[in-house]
Design a protein that fits this description.
Length: about 220
């Protein structure tokens, strides 16, 4: 597989308008967020798009950066310095502006496929072999990672969990859940996770997804 590394990109309002922003283009709002590459400070929009005042729309994809037959793969860094796939796109404008993201270009094996992301889901970049390896399911996370994942993915808060624990009729089980909940790390097979899955009506896949998200936080 041919993999072209486009670098790691970080979003921040404080970067300001890039020096090469077209003088005849509509000025961006004052609160615009700019996304730049960590290695050279290149602006994402200036890198991926071309401005043509006579065209409609005026901004178009820079085909030298994203030629036909390629896919954009965005990744987030996880433990061990590995990069886990997050999104797969055929258009720069669909990428958005994640806080800290590494982006690579790969060959599009089937341009007619409306769901190209399927073959890259939960994959880890293997730079030695220029490929993507299956991501081993996470079985243990830190407590703060679990709380963040629950909040972001489901809206479940720490107070919500504590309330559910207090509702347990069996005092022994209630105390076990409290101790497990307050542990520094959470194991996917622990009584607390099994209990929480039942109490909050989560499926096995949802728990897997929560652990996969947690390891990135």
């Amino acid at each position: 597989m041919n993999i072209t590394d486009l670098g790691i990109w970080v979003a921040n309002r404080s970067y300001g308008i890039p020096d090469d922003f077209p003088a005849n283009a509509a000025p961006p709002p004052d609160n615009a967020i700019w996304w730049r590459r960590t290695t050279d400070g290149k602006d994402w929009r200036m890198f991926t798009q071309i401005y043509d005042p006579l065209a409609t729309p005026k901004w178009r994809t820079n085909k030298q950066v994203l030629p036909d037959g390629k896919l954009l793969v965005t990744m987030v860094e996880i433990e061990g310095g590995k990069w886990l796939t997050q999104g797969i796109f055929r258009d720069f404008t669909a990428v958005g502006m994640p806080t800290r993201t590494r982006i690579v270009l790969v060959d599009d094996p089937d341009p007619a496929n409306p769901t190209p992301h399927k073959q890259f889901e939960r994959r880890v970049l293997n730079e030695a072999t220029s490929s993507f390896d299956p991501f081993a399911f996470v079985t243990e996370i830190q407590r703060h990672q679990g709380l963040l994942a629950l909040l972001l993915a489901t809206g479940i808060t720490e107070n919500t969990i504590r309330t559910k624990i207090l509702e347990e009729a069996d005092p022994t089980k209630r105390e076990i859940m409290r101790i497990r909940f307050e542990s520094a790390s959470w194991s996917k097979t622990s009584e607390f996770i099994v209990w929480g899955k039942t109490v909050f009506g989560l499926t096995d896949k949802q728990v897997d997804d929560l652990f996969a998200l947690a390891i990135t936080l």
